[in-house]
## 1
Amino acid sequence: MSLRVVVVHPDLLGTYGDGGNGVVLVQRARWRGIGAELVEATSESPLPTGDLYCLGGGEDAAQAASADRLRADDALARAVERGSPVLAVCAGYQILGRTFAVAHSRPLAGVGLLDVSTSKGAGRRAVGEILAEPLCAQLPVLTGFENHGGVTVRGSSVAPLARVEAGVGNGDGTDGAVSGRVVGTYLHGPVLARNPALADLMLSWATGLTLEPLDDAEETALRDERIAAVRARRARRGLSRLERYGRYGRGRS
Amino acid sequence: MRAELDRSLPARVRAAVAATRAVNALSRRLGTGSGTVAGGHAGLAVDPKLLEHLTAGRRVALVSGTNGKTTTTRLLAVALEGALGPVATNATGSNMPTGHVTALAVSLPGAPAVLEVDEGYLPGLVRTLAAEVVVLLNLSRDQLDRTNEVRMVSNRWRTALSGSPVTAVVANADDPLVVWAASAAAKPTWVAAGLSWRKDAVGCPACAGRVEFASAGDGGWSCACGFARPRLDVVLDGDEIVLADGRRYRLALALPGRFNRANAVMAAAASSAMGVGWEEALRRIAEVDEVAGRFSIVEVGGCTARVMLAKNPAGWRELLDLVSPGGRPVVVGINARVADGKDPSWLWDVPFERLRGRCVIATGERCRDLSVRLRYAEVAHRTVRDEVAAVRAAWMAHGGAAPGDGRASGEGAGDGADAEDPGGAVDVDFIGNYTAFTDVMARAAARTHA
Ligand SMILES: [Zn+2]
């Protein structure tokens, strides 16, 4: 078989190296002897058919343009009906929802593949390392980087991807959303490079195969380092807060 | 250079200049800084309008863009110095007003100013300094953890330039975001200086449609709305500069790489806009062989390394093109401190695949991120966190001599074929992002060159 991994609108979405997710999926398939090709589906053409789709992050105008094109063409919805997995990060995640917001505009219509709505948050952008415990699959803790100003509210028909241990995510203590094989998350950039188990979950959905493990020594070393760095920083911060407010002081959360 | 205080300046400005110099001297003596930012802060505290006061009566050129600012600033300063005498310039890349104040405070009164300017500060400076020339190089993604909507920056440049009719703009016509900003200027000079990174340029700044680049390689581009590459005044064609009136000049540089040829043609066009002839400017530019340490050849880790700086995907793309013809080992250093940007996701925008088959060592505080990126690029590599140890490991892996054995014998095959190779004297190429680069430069034993 040859697996077609479609990176959706790399000309509009992909600010944070998000195209890397497509590279990770293709390589992890190939390393197991599964033929795979990377299809960069730019926005001027209709979305091609594929076995797995990735959407990345983007600036406001690009995000709105990408959503327009995806709504005009129901290729992504049909792919989801066929059971193709979709991974959408950051702006791509927001686009897959019912509505999303860009600066100085009323809410814009999303593609509607996830029962979520995103508005501009009132506070500062969420920028930094994020650590989140997955809720809906046998995955180890997710590690990544987030950079967004959106607050995402889930509808009743969609589960969060993970519970946030450090960072912001959706804004309510959870990150992302999962509906069938459509996964959205604020962990941007090469989230699959830092979380190869999530990449393999998407690949097993797309192929129907039980995948043999790979030697992920580099990924494991990176994961251990990032997870330890975030937890150490939290511990330091917690400690100094404790010292500042004393035992009975009121800290946040 | 230590210039006398200009007696014609008002007392408050003289006090501010004195404060700038004193704090800088103190900061250098205490070793707490290179003495360019702290003094600027002190001077601006005494006189918030110090920058306007110090540039009053001077000819001012500003250089901005995502990549090439420091080099282009240096080349322009060198080009002008021959004809105009000493210039005031922030040669160390301190490109915010504190750095500008320091550069001006230590310069001769009235000397022309050639200032490198951070992209975000450019609009304010264009307005307040009534700059004679502004050089706009390119705009692309940089430092992902900051707000970096390049379209927004382009719009802010555009607004500032449309409000400053006295300013001549020298603009890279190959970058649509630069053209959008510069087409609001009164007298733009359009230079085809090239653009190797187009990912941030496909969204049309005029209509939010799509910019199409001509498939034939002349760099032409247009959008359906009519926004297109303007008529060119200056074309960089390989090693030749061609002007609209037919004049041609050979471009011979000591600095390596296509991107430095682009920086040089932009600098020469700017000096021409300030009245210095092309031939004279190019003759002086040709002699510059190192800029703020970039491309220096240094002794480090017991061997000789060429040390290069790349800060964002566009810069990395250029440098990988530069080193890829060589056979020598490559050490790649990645940090993610505040000055680098704390998010190294951009590693996935860099075509590290071009290093396949080379001896590669990943180093720096974020060598683990780089190592994963190299794995997926199928670049065999080792990971050595300490930068100097990494350079040494690369050299040893490539047949370097043990300490005390004199010159290395480990020259890779194919080096001689590289026209831009600085010669057989280099054992290892080191490319680092900002703090990885500065760390290695600080730890280098001695410069053997430049
Ligand atoms: Zn247009």
Note: The interface with chain A takes residues 141, 144-145, 147, 149-151, 199, 202-203, 208, 210, 342-343, 345-349, 368-369, 371-373, 375-376, 378, 383 of chain B (CB under 8 Å).
## 2
Amino acid sequence: MSTTPGDEPQEQISREIAQMHAAAADRGVPARHALRDFAPYRSSTFRHPTHALVRTDPEEIERVAPAFGHVDVDPYESDLTIQHSGDPLGERIIVAGRVLDGEGRPVRNQLIEVWQANASGRYVHKRDQHPAPLDRNFTGVGRAITGDDGSYRFVTIKPGPYPWRNHRNAWRPAHIHFSLFGNAFTERLVTQMYFPGDPLFALDPIYQAIPDQAARDRLIGAYDHSLTEPERATGYRWDIVLTGATATWMEHEHGDH
Amino acid sequence: MATTDKNGVLTGQEHLTAPERLALEEELTGTPPLVQTPSQTIGPFYGFALPFDGGAQLVPGTMPGAVRLHGTVYDGQGVPVPDALLELWQPDEQGRIVQEPGSRARQRGRFTGFGRAAVEVDGSYEFVTLLPGALGEGEARFAALAVFGRGLSHHLFTRAYFVAAGEQVALDALLTGLPEDRRSTLLARQDGPDSYRFDIRLQGEGETVFLDFPASS
Ligand SMILES: [Fe+3]
């Protein structure tokens, strides 16, 4: 059966996801990272290395991180709802949590950057062709510096799901992109936070590129009523752990092909 | 009663010291307490969020000692990648690592060692920076790089070792362990006065050596 790339049905993508997960489970070690070689995510096909990553000890420069501080970010940048003259449309939310290293120590005074679609699922970006309305009062970009306890807090709008061209009827679950710096350059992380109970989780090859269910679950923010503010916004808590890039053993075993 | 959230982070026990917290977390969860949050692709729509004014200029181009580090990012079919993002992190010419805030603010052109460049639609990028100094006597001089892109579920680390025309690269622990043909993918070769070229091939022939570091602790 041949199908035009980009036009495969969801059933085929879902079957490929199940096959990749079964192969990962057969290895017996939880695959806690997103696999770079994950065929159901079509854009990965020619963009993942086929050689094993070369394991090396970080040099001094890689054992520290670039330094950021309040000189780099204005306090208002953590509120994505006040960047224009009016209120953005959609459900106002608070997203807060802590950034920790592998030993539970706070990652303090570090830069967090976020970006997201608006409530209709549309990005402010010339290549976003989704025919959903832009919101003149929402750009969807925020920044913050973590506190002494590693904490961060953003006020924003709950993003909508959006279609993409991976396969026929492909839709991304609602998400906020996060970019984080840890205490070392090796701890650099770019990831996405999702919202609980999204019906698109099982269908999405980007989210499903992480074979281990428990690891995937770590990307879902939790509704937290103690963060919710009366008459204003609902709250989601999401903690992030930065220990560095590792556990790429799956790719080592692939070898050259 | 102490509890942990789903990330294994202890809640409501802020009075404990860090080792006490770790011990309690381990006891409660039966596993090492904190597990890495997984990565996800940067996607195609980071344009208003990550690039910043002067991000690719670590120093003004007119500054004495300024060099250009440039190249193109290619995919496994040899096609330029139009939407990759690169980050560069390096010591100054004397091998000193700057640890003062301002890596994004670019105040008065002060060098912090951090740079960020979104590639152009033809896959090309260009940093203006200083030659990284050796971190120790006789050590190799390199800039650390992180490569992000749509289709890349987890970013890639590599290093650009600066090699002036007619010069031999100093072999460090990493380069020594690599076969000649793979080693050459890490060399930023001088291609003009104050200019070094470093192409990045994500896959296939001439695939760049990408690095895996042990988890920090
Ligand atoms: Fe997105």
Note: Helices of chain A lie at 10-26, 213-217, 249-254.
